[in-house]
Write a structure and sequence with these properties.
Chain lengths: 114, 117
Amino acid sequence: DAKTTQPPSMDCAEGRAANLPCNHSTISGNEYVYWYRQIHSQGPQYIIHGLKNNETNEMASLIITEDRKSSTLILPHATLRDTAVYYCIVRQIGNSNSGYALNFGKGTSLLVTP
Amino acid sequence: GAVVSQHPSWVICKSGTSVKIECRSLDFQATTMFWYRQFPKQSLMLMATSNEGSKATYEQGVEKDKFLINHASLTLSTLTVTSAHPEDSSFYICSASTSIPHTDTQYFGPGTRLTVL
């Protein structure tokens, strides 16, 4: 799987948009960009994933650059409960018989402040 | 979203005993289940991958005879830490992968905190 680079930490004021960058310059054509987050002492939570088009769901938006070498996760209105470590992971999608594991890097520790 | 449960959520045991951790996908069938562990202030590290009905595939450095994995059904996988020692104290997290094409999203359990005295 391609390696990702994320800033170690970021701050965001409550109610503002949190924009978390991720660099994945060696991504392959069949690799997707996944975002997970882990709130302290809990299991990771799936947020969103995409291949090349921008994606949006009820939690966040994912913006992938045209060359796919970087992406940004956007939390439109951050709340205190969004304080967590956010992981950007690049990986292939498995077939119906087997999935692929996730290679967690160090992620970005996001602190949302009042 | 899909729900994955783990039991127990925490366990304290004496050195030399064995501990079993269960991981269940509650509302979907999981083609593959994964076991990770996380030491304090570190990221998750993959221990093993298991497909239902097959032997688990262990990552380098993870002893298969110490960490026994059984994946008997599409909704249940168990991890048994045999002859646990204090250095096995960690946060153990399982995940289950759906078999929906072009999705393959992993859903994680809440984790099990193991403390070996």
